[in-house]
Amino acid sequence: MMLRRMDGARMWHVSDIISTVEFNYSGELLATGDKGGRVVIFQHEQESKNRPHLRGEYNVYSTFQSHEPEFDYLKSLEIEEKINKIRWLPQQNAAHFLLSTNDKTIKLWKISERDKRAEGYNLKDEDGRLRDPFRITSLRVPVLMPMDLMVEASPRRIFANAHTYHINSISVNSDHETYLSADDLRINLWHLEITDRSFNIVDIKPANMEELTEVITAAECHPHQCNVFVYSSSKGTIRLCDMRAAALCDRHSKFFEEPEDPSSRSFFSEIISSISDVKFSHSGRYMMTRDYLSVKVWDLNMENRPVETYQVHEYLRSKLCSLYENDCIFDKFECCWNGSDSAIMTGSYNNFFRMFDRNTRRDITLEASRESSKPRATLKPRKVSTGGKRKKDEISVDSLDFNKKILHTAWHPKDNVIAVAATNNLYIFQDKIN
Amino acid sequence: AAAAAAEVGGPCRADGDDSLYPIAVLIDELRNEDVQLRLNSIKKLSTIALALGVERTRTELLPFLTDTIYDEDEVLLALAEQLGNFTMLVGGPEYVHCLLPPLESLATVEETVVRDKAVESLRKISQEHSPVDLEVHFEPLVKRLASGDWFTSRTSACGLFSVCYPRVSSTVKAEIRQHFRTLCSDDTPMVRRAAASKLGEFAKVLELDYVKSDIISLFTALASDEQDSVRLLAVEACVSIATLLPQEDLETLVMPTLRQAAEDKSWRVRYMVADKFSELQKAVGPEITKNDLVPAFQNLLKDCEAEVRAAAANKVKEFCENLPEDSREQIIMTHILPCVKELVSDTNQHVKSALASVIMGLSTILGKDNTIEHLLPLFLAQLKDECPEVRLNIISNLDCVNEVIGIRQLSQSLLPAIVELAEDAKWRVRLAIIEYMPLLAGQLGVEFFDEKLNTLCMAWLIDHVYAIREAATCNLMKLVEKFGAEWAQNTIVPKVLGMANDPNYLHRMTTLFCLKLYWLLFFENTFALSEACGQDITTKQMLPVVLKMSNDQVANVRFNVAKSLQKIGPVLDSNALQAEVKPVLEKLATDTDMDVKYFAQEAISGKVFHLLSLCKKTLNDVSRILHVRYLCINELCSSLLFTVLALA
């Protein structure tokens, strides 16, 4: 796939690191959350005639502070404002709605436009001067006049106090009225209109915390079947639950696990098998999981092994020791599908991200950085050399920058437009036209 | 602010019309930054409209309101509600269609409460449309909503079909049916749910033939929707549809779907069936109940999901009551009771507690002999249940069984259970049982109470949790109300007074709280009976104790003396007040402790004494009001002052 950077890829200057990226259902809007608790929404501009070579750029549509730092006085804990996840709701009227969450609190935001303003007061003139209240001889009803478009973000609901541990996932159900939120040990089900209670549907907390052997790392609702959801664990397994069977989903209906290859077992096996993200395909037939070194695609009808496995950065297998020492081994990479489920994308280090074409089994490594990608230039594939000899244009494993990691990526639901968050920069690439 | 402005705007100048000023303020405040003021203005929308007149309301106010849908939910909700009562303000029924545009935009907002209110108002004003206007204005609106881009408008449309259907021509009727059909198979589950929940209502206004041809197929489709959230709503529709159809059609048209719902794969659907079981039972009639619902109910009582069992358990009594009389006892004994017996030892406490809340009702249906033989063991088992909620539910329904078999029969097993609850380690459990004490006392009678429960009630007074002591104090007063003053004098007062010398200051304070409440209770009764019975005794017995406690070494006790005196002051006669109470308060007012000083001064500062003199003067007039006011002990002084001053 040929990609090139669009002009719209803002050199958008914030010191804060982007912590989540998400397109809405139509792809017209793209939301990012950052460590500072802010949410920035980009809107796809319509094609313009004077710049026909562009399909349209994404420009800032609305920016708002979603979460503030808090302090839990009972537990003496600081609650970070960092946005862990953003999920859009299916559009229900002219306004757009999204859920954003930090470690503890989920908020429902409404993003709406206003292009009319009321004018005409009885007690003051348009310039604000007060009129003599005793000289009112007639009543004026305000009239609405057109004004410059204003985008407002208003908090609609706050879903708080339901999570003891850190929220890692939120996912809107296909019934359009509920969503789930998952923390390390529990999954709760909420009604979008009810904030004062949620139902606990999964609880893996052992009676004795010393017996704790695994945690929930991600959870997602099935895109079509409102009763099905999956959650992944730090042990590399995925459980699929059916909410029809029982109110409490402690018993899974499917259990996906790939038997470990005994020959490759090492000290790090358990850590690197931990699943950092799970995503259903748009069709609902497959799901994809990301562990530290690979992406796996599972057929929901086959529990004993994945149907496809893609190596993301196998060359790091020899580096696990140092990656453990600098804590990088615990990085949580996300993954995403393209609109037709034919390709998948996930991030790596050194501002590299990887794409895999499922039909041709071809893969590509690309880099998101200001130096290597000029606006409207085509991205060049990158290669990491693993052997002793380094070819031209290759980069050696030892010179990879592990501080530059691409954890969050998003793919437009219909078009070949992707958003890649590289620390504090957001890059938007699109398929080359012509 | 508007109200204040209306008052300020009093002085009138020659050239302005001062009556316009408050309205002008109201109109301006429609756009105030303060939500409360906007809300206030919206709630007075009728005043604004009245001042503007019907013409300007139609041409200026309504267009403005139509575009004001950016506001807070509570403002929009109030607006939606107001517009439902606006017909006269726009010029009567012939202009009522002017209200449609603002309500239409309100019917598309995302907030369900606002949308529902807008739909409610639309339904209301639809009745004020003439048949012609209904077709010219209202029906097109319904169509627009039904074919709207966003599902919010389509969900709103679902609620409007049934109000316009009966009053339109047959061609329009056909269109409406078509629209409803379309919405029943909408892409979004939101709309299908809205349609499913209005299916029964729509069926009621349809001609029977169309019910059979159209509604049944829609019902069947919704009841087998892929989303269980839609299917469960079809169960509700099932009730209304079954009521509409003649008995002979039920078997073929409704029962297959109902049977399928009762065995649905999703527990939520089965839960809904259990929850609606009584309604379903009434709707399908005795024959189908006997043949179909009894086995279905048995299955629900044995369901694998606890939520379903709990919902079914809740319905046990109602279901049994509504069984056809000729075979009721036989069905209960052979089919229902075995399941109930199993539920008594269910693994889930919610199931057991749901059962406990209704199981006692079976005794009246089954009669004395069956109750003693079959039900009593179950009651006793539940009384000994490990879950306090189950035991509480049994205790709170004792009266039903009492009527059938008499309390003596139960008391032997009942008492240990109550004692156990009364001493439960969890204070919330103790609190709950205290709340049942007055009820139990009423059911058991004074004799039994004195013998068995009195000691418990007194023990709570010295509980180590304040909430329990407080509740115990209130409980005592309720018992006094039940058993009368004499009983109180003999059993309660001596014990309470005895506690005044307790080494624990918290217990000494409990004495104070008891006495205070007791006094006020007495005062209230004195007025009610218009006879000063017992007042002397209370004064003679209790006042010295309270006054003596003003020397307590703990400051908390002392300032509570001051607070109590403030409250009971009005009840005392003026001699006692001047000779005994006042000196004590004056002494407390010079206390070394700040708080004691404060409350003593508060008590002296006139409130009590000033009040009292006023009180005496107007005593006859206000006695009735005072009687009411005194019930509200916390607000006593301020409200009393208010009343007295207002009357004086």
TrEMBL record, chain A:
GO terms for molecular function: protein phosphatase regulator activity. Belongs to the phosphatase 2A regulatory subunit B family. It comes from the Eukaryota. PROSITE patterns: PR55_1, PR55_2. SMART domains: WD40. PP2A consists of a common heterodimeric core enzyme, composed of a 36 kDa catalytic subunit (subunit C) and a 65 kDa constant regulatory subunit (PR65 or subunit A), that associates with a variety of regulatory subunits. Residues 368-391 are annotated as: Disordered. This is Serine/threonine-protein phosphatase 2A 55 kDa regulatory subunit B. The keyword Repeat applies. Keywords: Repeat, WD repeat. InterPro entries: PP2A_PR55, PP2A_PR55_CS, WD40/YVTN_repeat-like_dom_sf, WD40_repeat_dom_sf, WD40_rpt. It comes from Sparus aurata. Coiled coil: none annotated. One of its GO terms (cellular component) is protein phosphatase type 2A complex.
From TrEMBL, chain B:
Keywords: Repeat. PROSITE patterns: HEAT_REPEAT. It holds the Pfam family VPS15-like_hel. Residues 99-280 form the Phosphatase 2A Regulatory Subunit A helical domain. One of its GO terms (cellular component) is protein phosphatase type 2A complex. Residues 286-367 form the Phosphatase PP2A regulatory subunit A/Splicing factor 3B subunit 1-like HEAT repeat domain. Belongs to the phosphatase 2A regulatory subunit A family. This is Protein phosphatase 2, regulatory subunit A, beta b. The gene is PPP2R1B.
